[in-house]
Design brief:
The chain contains 3 helices and 2 strands, in the order E-E-H-H-H. It is mainly alpha-helical and 102 residues long. It has one domain. It has a two-stranded antiparallel ribbon. A hairpin with a 2-residue loop joins strand 1 and strand 2. It is flat, with a radius of gyration of 18 Å.
Length: 102
């Protein structure tokens, strides 16, 4: 019997890095100039869901007041990051953002 050729997993379309409570998603499909293909959109949805689920699972067993505190802290941590303000400002100014961590 001939062994089947080994297949490598295709490279991930999205890379997730987390630092200080802030997750950064990086598109990883330079050959297609990171075009939003169906596969790319599905990969992004999966990553966004994973980020949200982490906070959800931290709250699920907690009493109501503690669950609100966990969700509030997650939002504050994300909004406190300098890149969050830059993203909002760039959007309102209709310009490309200038990321601090890029």
């Amino acid at each position: 019997m001939t062994p089947s050729p080994s297949r490598e997993d295709p490279p991930a379309l999205v890379r997730r890095d987390a630092q200080g409570g802030v997750a950064t998603l990086t598109l990883q499909s330079p050959a297609s100039r990171n075009a939003l293909s169906l596969a790319m959109i599905e990969a992004l949805i999966s990553e966004f869901a994973a980020i949200g689920k982490r906070t959800f699972y931290r709250q699920i067993e907690a009493p109501l007041a503690e669950a609100y505190a966990v969700a509030s802290m997650a939002m504050v941590e994300n909004l406190a990051h300098p890149d969050a303000g830059e993203g909002v400002t760039a959007f309102l100014d209709k310009r490309e953002p200038h990321w601090e961590d890029a």
